[in-house]
Structures are given as structure tokens and as C-alpha cells.
Specification:
Layout: H1 30-33, E1 38-42, E2 45-48, E3 53-56, H2 59-62, H3 71-82, H4 95-109, E4 117-119, H5 125-140, E5 144-148, H6 157-161, H7 166-170, E6 179-182, H8 196-203, E7 212-217, E8 220-221, E9 227-228, H9 231-243, E10 247-251, E11 275-278, E12 291-294, H10 314-327, H11 332-354, E13 361-365, E14 368-372, H12 376-388, E15 391-392, E16 394-396, E17 402-405, H13 413-431
Parallel strand pairs: 3-15, 5-6, 5-7, 7-10, 10-11
Antiparallel strand pairs: 1-2, 2-3, 4-12, 8-9, 11-12, 13-14, 14-17, 16-17
Helix pairs in contact: 3-10, 4-10, 11-13, 12-13
Length: about 425
């Protein structure tokens, strides 16, 4: 019996200057926007193999709030590994796990009056969302979840069912059910009162809306185009959930860990979610780690009812604890982020004024900022021009029409201004 013939990749090594196309899946995306091979990175700068430096206004899609290879966190990681400390431990008790839990409680939860228990659902943000959705359904006995237009919560089936982007949903291959989309804040440009549609459906016995288990929301929709919910809108949503016995889940995976100023992005609104999803920068170093924070009375999973092999990566506990001690023992980083965010906001407003015929829109909070262009083609050309000039910046939004800025929170003012100057040159090259 002969072995089946496996077709060779259509692209040969000779035709592929980066050396990846012939062997790697076509699903890769960021490497298409930034066609170079990266090799080293420190703080807010990454270097290609040929030594070309790039300022990073991407920060691992928000996973590197404290910069690349943060020196203080790197030393903690190196010491941890050199001492032969536990690396893989599933959910066994370890000293690193205890240190993180105690530090997180002392520096994050307790100062904010939060009594949530900490669940380690798996290595990534989608794991945190899946655990939150499962738990909400188990607690309430209901199936439906309310989500919002332009939301993004992850690529696994449960997380994808509460995601709005049609292209990403199309990759599921099956119907994505048990989720009902509602208009996000200002979806109708202020023409419709907040929650008028959702409230009517909840209160009308003939609406056909299944009684929801939960609402899942991002306070700032990063992948959706840096859409920012007003504090009063978030408070109205929290009140609506409370009145109808619906659990409130805040997905703080990209906007948490200080991205908008406070450690949690919902602090400004003064709300207390029932369940909070964290990942990305919680490890501090770009190592995989995710948390699902749960009000104690909702912590009803049976032992092992939700588990996974990588639900608590011990080296990530070590760097996470050090990141919390370094950046969250006082409010210095929070004040710095707000000030830098104001600098970016002012600059983007000046860009909008500079190109009135383009009808640009500046948006965002803290160091999560966006500049909406006329369409995705224009935004893509701007980011390509920025890359050619030494700046990494991506697009977001349903059609990729928003140039999205997520620099490390630790970026210097000089680096921030230098990056914005590169943006100006890129905009001039495209819009002029």
C-alpha cells in the first residue's frame, strides 16, 4: 500500500524572502501588514533581523502594557527559572500561585472594594470569556446572552457567538446561537435613547426575547474600532441588569491592567460587574495568563467542572506579582497613562482639524486611541506608510477603518511624540 501524496506548498523558499510562506498556514495576519522578520525588542522598540528599529504602538495587541522585556520583570523571570521553581502545575498549590493571589488581592481587589474570587480558566482571553459564559448560564439556568454591536470577545465558539464581526463569525462553520446583539453606546449617533430597545424587549411578554443569563460588554471596544462607552451608559446598563436579574460580565481583557488609566476600565463609571475577564497584560511580560473574577456567591462550579492543562502558568504568576508591586502599589502609572492619553488625544484632534475634508474622527480613553478614516483602504495605506517610516500601528473596526493606537503604558513622552510625528508623515503621504 503506497502512502498518500501530500501536495507541496505552492510557494517555494526561493520565492519567499522571509522564509515563512512556504510552510506556515495562510491564516496568519499581522505578518502580512508588517512583512519583515523581527528579532529583538526592548521597552517600546522592536528590531528586525537586519537591525531596523520600529517604535511599537501595538504592544502585542495590548499584552505588553509594561513594554517588551521589561528589565525588572525579566530579572524576576530569570531568577525564577534559574532556581528550578515550578513551571507547570495545572491547578496544584504552589508558592508562586499563592504570591500572586495575595498580591492581586492586596493591590488590586481590596483597594477597589471588590471581593471577587479568582478563577484561572486557561492561558488566554477566550478561555476567560468561555468560563464567564458557562458560569453565568449555570448560575441562572438560562441560555441567552446579550452582547453588543461591534463587540469582540474571542475566537472559540462560545466567545465568537458573542462577537459582532461578520468575517470572524463566518469562520465558525456552524450557527452561532444563544446570543442576542444590542446597540452599543451611540450606535445610532445619539438619535435613540439609551437601552430603549433592550428595555422594551425585556419588559414585553410578546417580544420573543429569551430571558438572558448575562450581558457581556467592553467599556472600550478595541477590535470594534475604539468605540468608547460613556460612564452614564455603563451605569445605566448595570442598573438595567440589576433590575432584571441579569448578570453583568465586563470583558476587560484588552482594556484592563491600566490601559484606560485605572487598573480596571470600568472604575470611572463606578460600577461593580458580577464577572470580570482579564488576560493579555495581567502577566506583565507577555506570558499566557487569564483570570475570570467572580462574585463569591456566583462561584458555583464543582471541582474540576471547568478545567484545562494550562490554567495557571507559574512563571506568569511570578512576573504578574512583580508587575503589580512595581506599577500598582501607588497611582503613578495611572496618572502617567491619563496624561499621555491626553497628549495623544490633543494630537489626534489637531489631525482632525488639519484635514476637515476627510471627516476624520478621534476617539478613545487613556492610551487606547483611534483615528477613524473614510474607509479601510485609506486606514490600511496609512498604517503601511507608518510601517515604512518605522512605526508599528494596526487597524481595527468592522471594515478596518480605524487606525488604532495601543503603545506600552511605559512609553516615554519623547517616544510618544516621535511616533505621532511618524503618523503625521504617514497621513500626509496618504491624505495629501
Amino acid at each position: 500500500m503506497t502512502s498518500p501524496t501530500i501536495p507541496l506548498p505552492s510557494t517555494s523558499w526561493a520565492d519567499d524572502p522571509t522564509g515563512f510562506t512556504a510552510l506556515e498556514s495562510q491564516v496568519r495576519s499581522y505578518s502580512r501588514a508588517w512583512p519583515t522578520v523581527f528579532d529583538r525588542a526592548v521597552d517600546a522598540t522592536v528590531h528586525a533581523e537586519d537591525g531596523t528599529p520600529y517604535l511599537d504602538f501595538f504592544a502585542g495587541a495590548g499584552s505588553l502594557n509594561y513594554g517588551h522585556n521589561n528589565r525588572r520583570l525579566k530579572q524576576v523571570l530569570l531568577d525564577y527559572l534559574i532556581d528550578d521553581r515550578m513551571v507547570h502545575s495545572l491547578d496544584m498549590l504552589t508558592s508562586a500561585r499563592r504570591e500572586f493571589l495575595e498580591t492581586f488581592h492586596e493591590l488590586v481587589l481590596e483597594p477597589r472594594g471588590l471581593d471577587h474570587t479568582v478563577m484561572f480558566p486557561g492561558p488566554g482571553g477566550a478561555n476567560a470569556v468561555e468560563a464567564a459564559l458557562k458560569l453565568a448560564r449555570k448560575v441562572t439556568g438560562r441560555e441567552s446572552v446579550i452582547t453588543f454591536t461591534n463587540a469582540f470577545h474571542g475566537m472559540t465558539l462560545g466567545a465568537l457567538s458573542v462577537t459582532g464581526n461578520s468575517m470572524k463569525r463566518g469562520g465558525a462553520g456552524i450557527p452561532l446561537v444563544h446570543a442576542t446583539p444590542m446597540p452599543y453606546d451611540d450606535y445610532f449617533d445619539g438619535d435613540v435613547p439609551d437601552f430603549v430597545y433592550l428595555q422594551r424587549l425585556l419588559e414585553d411578554g410578546g417580544s420573543g426575547l429569551n430571558e438572558p443569563a448575562a450581558v457581556i460588554v467592553e467599556t472600550v471596544q478595541g477590535e470594534g474600532g475604539i468605540n468608547t462607552a460613556r460612564a452614564e451608559w455603563l451605569r445605566g446598563l448595570a442598573d438595567l441588569c440589576k433590575r432584571h436579574g441579569i448578570l453583568l460580565i465586563v470583558d476587560d481583557i484588552q482594556m484592563g491592567c491600566g490601559r484606560t488609566g485605572g487598573f480596571f476600565s470600568f472604575e470611572e463609571a463606578g460600577i461593580v460587574p458580577d464577572i470580570i475577564c482579564l488576560s493579555k497584560s495581567i502577566s506583565g511580560y507577555g506570558l499566557p495568563l487569564a483570570l475570570t473574577l467572580v462574585r463569591p456567591e456566583l462561584d458555583v462550579f464543582e471541582p474540576g467542572e471547568h478545567n484545562g492543562t494550562f490554567r495557571g502558568f507559574a512563571p506568569a504568576f511570578a512576573t504578574a506579582s512583580e508587575a503589580l508591586r512595581t506599577y500598582w502599589a501607588d497611582d503613578a502609572l495611572e496618572r502617567s497613562t491619563i496624561a499621555k492619553g491626553a497628549l495623544v488625544e490633543s494630537h489626534l484632534n489637531s489631525v482632525v482639524a488639519r484635514y476637515p475634508e476627510q471627516e476624520l474622527v478621534a476617539r478613545g480613553r487613556g492610551l487606547a486611541r483611534g483615528l477613524q478614516m473614510s474607509d479601510g483602504d485609506v486606514a490600511g495605506r496609512v498604517t503601511a506608510e507608518a510601517f515604512e517610516r518605522g512605526l508599528l500601528v494596526e487597524t481595527s473596526g468592522p471594515d478596518g477603518e480605524v487606525v488604532k493606537f495601543l503603545p506600552p503604558l511605559t512609553i516615554t513622552d519623547d517616544e510618544l511624540r516621535r511616533g505621532l510625528a511618524i503618523l503625521d508623515d504617514a497621513l500626509a503621504a496618504v491624505l495629501s
